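$ fold --in a.seq
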Amino acid sequence: MIEEKDEVMENLHKLLRGSIEEGEFEAALACLDTMIRFTPYDSKPHIMRSEVLTQLERFDEAITSIQTALSLSPSSSRALGVAANCYLSVGDVLSAKMAIDRSLTIAPEQPRMKWQRSFCSLSMFDFKSGFEEYEYGFCASSRTPRGPLNKRWNGEPTPVLFVHGEQGLGDQIQFIRFLEEAKARSGGMLVLETQAELIGLCKHCADLVVAMQPDGSIPVAYTKWISLLSIPNILGVDKVFGNAYFTPPEVEVDLAGAKVGFVYSGNPKYPNDKGRSLTLEEARQFEGFAPFGLLQNAGEIPFEMPRIAGADIGHTAAVISKLDLVVTVDTSIVHLCGALGKEAWLIAPKNGEWRWGLSGSKSPWYDSVEVFRCVDQDRQPAIKAICDRLKARYGKSDFLPANIKRPLAKAIEEAPETQQQEEPEMQAA
């Protein structure tokens, strides 16, 4: 009997490995459920079940599975790490941090867990702890050094400081604010390496701005190097300020009658793009509430409006500077608005980026950005709140074609008069 059970478990393990390798997570889940029936008190299948359910975006079930695993193995660092990922998937940063803290108490030498905890700390605007532990990303193979370790800058004077603009466009726009102090601290020439799209906008931020090379080579000689996102830790940043720090280039722009920029989706390759980007149906709910212009060159136009994005980031910055307002999901555009000091209304997912914090309508990173938070995975409350505000500012009837009657538009159009009178006070607050 025991031999038969062992043979069954061995076959299930083979099926499980094959299913996961092929990305067949439903089949993997079926294998794990069978394994749990054979060994209900073994925490490992419960841990793997939680990981598979996370892949299937069945987050509530994933949390239940990992809680079962922890009841069986309370001191399992792996289970605590999976628990942290589950909690982060639903935006429960506090529970994630508790799981990580507990794991590091049991096994302190875990660079990846410390790196993961940095995002929890930064979400709570504990910048000093967050930026210190963000450096563990190099040990966890999540960040790549741009040069030899003996040439890494630690805040000392140096003739030529080479700054590597790591991560995406939004991260670089956000962290370029620290270049001025880094240059003052180093006392020499500062060279910024960034994506070609950002060069025009960043040319006043450094003594020299160079494009990242396709072959990964560094096109200038330098005495010290540093990654852009490491600068706050070197400088000992424990507080940030949200004032504007970019000046748009002086170029002619054509808004085609638009007053409000609109961005409803981001890069589809971004891991959490499904969580941040609106569906076309969700985007269409904004139709008629303002004279919109689409601030993205790719993707379908969800309703009639001109495309007004520039050919590059610098030109787009010039376009944004002429608008009244930008309504956007969490892409590089919201960082650009904040850096320009342009008013922006951000639709932020519950499990969104650390820079927007955990609650409230403001982030210390950008004074001009107002955060409209989704409730759990539901974007509808944020969409409705923005449409209410747009109606109060622009008056929906001026922009909604007579033959268009979207459900949300109709509900707001028919809202009680007393509620409509209160909306300008909400906007002023």
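$ fold --in b.seq
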Amino acid sequence: MTHGLVEAVVLTIPPGARTAWVRLLFKLDETGTPACSSDPDSWANHANNVEDQQYVARLCQPCLARVQCRDFAHLAGEAGVWGGEVISPEAGRARAANQRAATRATDRAAADQARAKRRVYVEERRARERAAKVARTAAIVRRRKPPAEPAQPNQGDELL
């Protein structure tokens, strides 16, 4: 049943952060249960005051998935304590907006590159088709026999 839950969670993750989410899941499978998973609700409630945020950030220090957790939070635009770092809601939203803009720019660049490759391919194909047409025309011309010349009388044969 957890497989469906994981799919539902992945669908709500911003596209730019899905790879980071998968890396975090793999790291958690590899290293075991992190401190924040023992009571996620109380963990989230620590985001209200600075001392509690610093306390929770210190609890993250021994976690082996700290880097992947922080990377995911930055890419997803999350706020709170992630990977031992306190991320403000404004900073989280700004990072997420920057990531989405970078993703869109990358997508546009990839689309432009694909269009350029397609254009080159079409031009090359047209050039090959023109060359083939010229070659076919030349072959037809070579196969044609020159028109028969009118027979000229021999010099000794005179018409009377």
